[in-house]
Amino acid sequence: MLTALINGPWARELSLLPWTIIAVLAALAGFGAVVLYSAAGGNLSPWALKHVIRFAILLGLALAIAMVRPQFWMKHAWSLYGIVLAGLVGVELVGGIRGGSQRWLDLGIMEVQPSEFMKLAILLVLARYYHFLPKGYETRPQGLFPALALIAMPAALVMLQPDLGTAMAIVFGGLVMLFGAGVRLWLFGAGIAAAAAAAPIAWTMLHDYQRNRVLIFLDPASDPRGAGYHITQSKIAIGSGGITGKGFLAGTQSHLDYLPELQTDFAFATMAEEWGLLGGLAILVGFGIVLAWGIGVSLRGRGQFERLLALGLTATLFFYLAINLMMVMGLAPVVGIPLPLISYGGSAMMTVMILIGLLMGIARDNKRPDG
Predict the structure, then answer these.
(1) Strand ranges in the chain using DSSP code E only, listed in sequence order
(2) pLDDT for the residue numbered 8
(3) Are 329 and 234 contained in the same domain?
(4) Can you give the pTM of this predicted structure?
(5) 113: closest CA among 100, 136, 97, 134?
(6) 6 domain residue, yes or no
(7) pLDDT averaged over the chain?
(8) Is position 340 within any domain?
(9) What is the spatial distance between Cα 64 and Cα 368, in angstroms, rounded to a whole number?
(10) What is the pLDDT of residue 287?
(11) Judging by DSSP bridges, how do beta strands 101-106 and 111-112 pair with one another?
C-alpha cells in the first residue's frame, strides 16, 4: 500500500511542484512573522500568529490551484474577467465604505474586494486574448484597442473607489502583457508622451489626499509632522538600522510608536531598523530567487498563453516588491501597497498566493511529459 502511494498519480503530480520555491516562500513568510512579532512588542497577537495561520491556509490554496492545468484558466479567462468587472461595478453601486474609500462588496457571508482579484483577472484575459490574436495584429488598431479597453475599464473603476495603488498595479500588469505580446516599443513611447501631456488634467482629477501624497513625496520636509510624517519616520528607521540593525526587539522608532503603519505599509522599515542592511538583503535575495524562477517558467511555457501569463504574474509580484520598497525609502509616493509575505494583511497575501499558485501550475505543466 505504501509503495502504491509513493508511486501513485498524486505522488507524481506533487513531485512536479517547485518545492525549493515553496521553501523560500515559507522562509519569507516566517521572517515576516518575526518582524510582526517584534512590531507588537514581542507578542504573537494581534499580527504574527494570524500571519502564520493565513500563510498556511493560503499555501494550501496555492497548492490546490497549482494542480489545475493552465488550459482550465484559459478556457474560463473571459468569464472570470467579466465576473470581477461586474464586482467592480457593484462596488460603485452598493459597495461598503471604509476610511473614505468604497472598495468592498458585501456578499452576505463575507466581504470581498474585487479590485484585488482584478490584478490577476486582467493577466488571464490578456494572455488568452493574445493567445488567439493572429500574428502581426499586436500593433494594429483592431488588435491594440480592444486590449487597451480591457485594461482601461477596470483601472478607471478602481480609480473611482479611489485606490491609486491597485489601479497602478492593474495598468502595470496590462502593459507588461502588451510588451510581452510584441506591441511595438514606439507605441509605449507615444503612450508615455500622451500621459505626460494629460498629466495636468489628471492632476485636477486626483483627490486632495492623493495630491498631497505626490507633493510630500517631492518634498517630505515641507510638512514633517503632517503629511510627510510617514516617509520621514520610515527613513529614520531604515537609516538607524545600519548594516546589522539594532537587534531583535530593540527597535526604537517602532516600539516607541514613531513609525506609523509599522505592520503593513512600512513593515520593511520596521524590519530594517532591527535587522539592518543584512535583513533587507535577505528579503531581496529571497524574492530574487522567486522572480528568477518566475521568469524561467515564462521562458519555458508551452504556448503563448502560458508564457504571457507567467510573465505577467512575475511582473505583478515585482511591482508589489519594487513599489513598497521605493515607497518606504521615499523614492515613490505612499500608495498603500504592502510588502508581499512580510506585511500584515489578508487581502494582499491572498492575491500573492493565488499568483504563486498559478505560476506553480504553469511550472508543473511545463514538466509534464504528456504535453
Answers:
(1) 96-98, 101-106, 111-112
(2) 56
(3) yes
(4) 0.90
(5) 97
(6) no
(7) 85
(8) yes
(9) 17
(10) 97
(11) antiparallel
